[in-house]
Amino acid sequence: MKVLVTGGASGLGAALVAACRARGDEVCAIDLDPAERSWAHDLGNTDPAAWAALADWLATQGPFDLVILSAGISATGRFETIPLAQHQNVTAVNLAGPIRLVHLLESGHLLRAGGRLICIASLSCFTGYPGAASYAASKDGLAGFARSLRRPMRKRGITVQLACPGPMDTPHATRYAPDGASTKGRLAPDRAAQAILNARSFTIIPGAGPKLAAVLGRLAPQTLTRLMGRVLFSKLK
Amino acid sequence: MWFITGASSGLGLEMVRLLAARGVPVCASGRRGPGDLPDDFPNIPYHACDLADPMAVTKLADWAMGQGPLRAVVLNAGAGFFRPLAQETPDAIARVLAINLDANIALAHRLCPVLSGGRLGLIGSVAHKGAAGMPVYAASKSALDGFGRALAEEWRGTVKLRVLHPGPVATGMATRAGRTPDFADRVFLPPRQTAAALLAALNAESGADRQTVSFLRVGLHRVLKGAA
């Protein structure tokens, strides 16, 4: 099986790459840092030449049976104190880049019929995320994109799935969590990777705690977002 | 002073007309030049602006702040295409996301200091839940929803922020976006009543951060308040 993972160099992406390699898949990765069988590319870059080079590389590696969009960055703090350029970079890397990549895969017929496309969004799609407004925007956007693609892609035999992991024990989480936040209760990335790869449902929420949060978020979205504001945003100030 | 983007057509135009008719001071921006506005466009300060251009967006925010103390801002402008992903182009994808999401983030960012004590309305779309026929537009509106829910909590007590999801509305946007008109267009919501319901939702003292302004809501508003 041929697999493509974005953000494959660290965190959940690296765990997904390792899990796929362990079961014998041929794995290609896209990340900022080049590594073995991977292509160095910044998804936030809009330079046509960089995308053309990526397209050429994908054409030599594909078509793929499984594509996982895992690359993501964040910017945490009060919305107005974060420089605008940082917000724009978050939406570029987390939303515009992945949409453009799927468009590229689609127009190049690089997703095989019978294959799978997994979008890694965030539990923030259910809870809201005050203190990371542009990140929340990008992840909700990716979720809306996955929901929109689900039906048209199924007609062509491609399964689209949306994973919404909660906090994980990854460099990403450590970088963007409030200073001194406890790492207890954060899901190990290799366990999240297993849960995502084994899941058959459209929405994937690894871990029992995050599953509960998602249910509460569906029932009372605003109450949960206010709670997020109390426990998270107030510590970011 | 109210400030409304995307006022040269559709819901924005109706909102501006309603506010001007009520004697509320309002300024507006739109994609069209001042010469291409409808003949009955109200006599209000107007600034033509392509929201896909970040420099122009900064200029627009500064222009709006110069029009007087802003009491309410409605970020209503939106663009999109009704077509499957394979028929999109990289430029069109970038443009839709720039107008529907990044421009609104930039305007909220720049206008933040003058919004204190005021209201901010983000106009989304019922497509935010996902729409098979327009994946990029739907993604941009979902993103606006996530942005609004996060920022509403951050700004609670300072700025009253609401994300309002209207639709489907018979503004002609769907047809312009490439959708073939069919029987469904006849049951689409009337723009003027939808605009009135949106303004009422934004003006209300209490209400959820995210609200859907669709058939039930517009119909109720029409019955309770009379045709606007």
Automatic annotation (TrEMBL), chain A:
Entry-linked PANTHER family: DEHYDROGENASE/REDUCTASE SDR FAMILY MEMBER 7B (PTHR44196), DEHYDROGENASE_REDUCTASE SDR FAMILY MEMBER 7B (PTHR44196:SF1)
Pfam family, one: adh_short
Family that this chain belongs to: Belongs to the short-chain dehydrogenases/reductases (SDR) family.
Organism: Roseinatronobacter domitianus
Record-linked SUPFAM superfamilies: NAD(P)-binding Rossmann-fold domains
PROSITE patterns: ADH_SHORT, PROKAR_LIPOPROTEIN
Keywords on record: Oxidoreductase
Organism domain of life: Bacteria
Name of the molecule in the record: SDR family NAD(P)-dependent oxidoreductase
InterPro entries assigned to the protein according to its UniProt record, in alphabetical order: NAD(P)-bd_dom_sf, Sc_DH/Rdtase_CS, SDR_fam
TrEMBL record, chain B:
Organism: Roseinatronobacter domitianus
Pfam families: adh_short
Keyword annotations: Oxidoreductase
UniProt-listed InterPro entries: NAD(P)-bd_dom_sf, SDR_fam
Designated name of the protein: SDR family oxidoreductase
Family recorded in the similarity comment: Belongs to the short-chain dehydrogenases/reductases (SDR) family.
